[in-house]
Specification:
With 182 residues, the protein is of the alpha/beta class. The protein contains 3 helices and 11 strands.
C-alpha cells in the first residue's frame, strides 16, 4: 500500500518494512556485541515500541531480561506536555545495565522523564535506542545512543506508531500526506 487512510487523515509510504528490518538486525548485532557479558535489562516503552522490540529481541543473542514500562505524553498527533507513568517496573534496576527501547523521540519530554526516574534506581548504565529520532523537534537535550532512522517534522504511523490508537498494526511506516485534511 502506498497510501493509507486513518480516521480523517491520509498517510503515504515513508519507510518500508524491509528497510526497518535490515536496520533492526544491524542494531541487534551491535547490542549483542556491546552488551555480550553484561546481562542487560531491555526496557521497552509501550505501546509504540512493541513491534520494534519484538523484531529487535528476536535478533539479540545474549543473556538478557525484559521489563515493560508504559508512559504517555501524546494525545492525537501532539504532545500534551505532561508525562503520565501508567505502568511501573516490577524489579529493581540497581546495578543493572538498562537498554531503553523507544518508538520515537521527538520533543524529548517522555525520555527526559524516564531517564530521571530510572537514574533514581542507580543502574550501572542506561543505553537509549530509538526507532525514530526527530532532532529538530527536541525541547529537551536528549541524544539516543542509537537512532535507527532520523526524520524531520513528519507525523508518522505504522510499525507500532499510532494516530489516536489506530495504525499501530501497519507493517511499514507512513507519514502524513501534506494537506490531507483538505
Amino acid at each position: 500500500m502506498e497510501q493509507v487512510h486513518i480516521e480523517d487523515r491520509t498517510f503515504e509510504l515513508f519507510i518500508r518494512y524491509e528497510s526497518i528490518k535490515d536496520r533492526v538486525m544491524e542494531i541487534a548485532k551491535e547490542i549483542s556485541y556491546k552488551f555480550e557479558h553484561l546481562d542487560p535489562v531491555f526496557l521497552p516503552v509501550l505501546n509504540g515500541s512493541f513491534m520494534f522490540t519484538a523484531d529487535l529481541l528476536k535478533n539479540v543473542n545474549i543473556k538478557s531480561s525484559v521489563q515493560f514500562i508504559k508512559v504517555a505524553s501524546y494525545q492525537g498527533d501532539s504532545s500534551t506536555g505532561q508525562v503520565k507513568s501508567l505502568l511501573g517496573l516490577s524489579d529493581s534496576l540497581t546495578g543493572k545495565h538498562i537498554i531503553i527501547l523507544e518508538d520515537i523521540i521527538d520533543t524529548g519530554l517522555t525520555m527526559k522523564h524516564l531517564l530521571e526516574e530510572l537514574n533514581k534506581q542507580n543502574p550501572a548504565s542506561i543505553f537509549v535506542v530509538t526507532l525514530l529520532y526527530k532532532k529538530e523537534s527536541l525541547q529537551y537535550p536528549i541524544n539516543p545512543d542509537i537512532a535507527c532512522f532520523n526524520i524531520s517534522q513528519e507525523f508518522v504511523v505504522g510499525y507500532g506508531l499510532d494516530y489516536d490508537g489506530y495504525g499501530r498494526n501497519l507493517r511499514h511506516i507512513y507519514k502524513e500526506k501534506v494537506n490531507s485534511n483538505q
